[in-house]
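Researcher: Good morning. I'm working through a list of sequences from a screen, and I'd like to move beyond sequence-only analysis. For each chain I'm collecting a predicted structure so we can compare shapes side by side. This is the next one on the list. No need for commentary yet; just the structure.
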Amino acid sequence: MADNEKKCLVCGRDEEQIPLVELSFRGVKYYICPQHIPVLIHEPNKLEGMLPDAENMEAG
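Model: Good morning. Structure tokens for this chain:
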């Protein structure tokens, strides 16, 4: 994702289409929409390829 591109890392919708929540991981800013926050919390391994080392994250 380009530095200034604010899009949900899961669905790709931007801030003109849906509210986005900013998160920071390993010094990099990412964005996720409210619909996909449960994936980040409960099934972070599904973010493999979208978030570094997501396959190694434990569900909360």
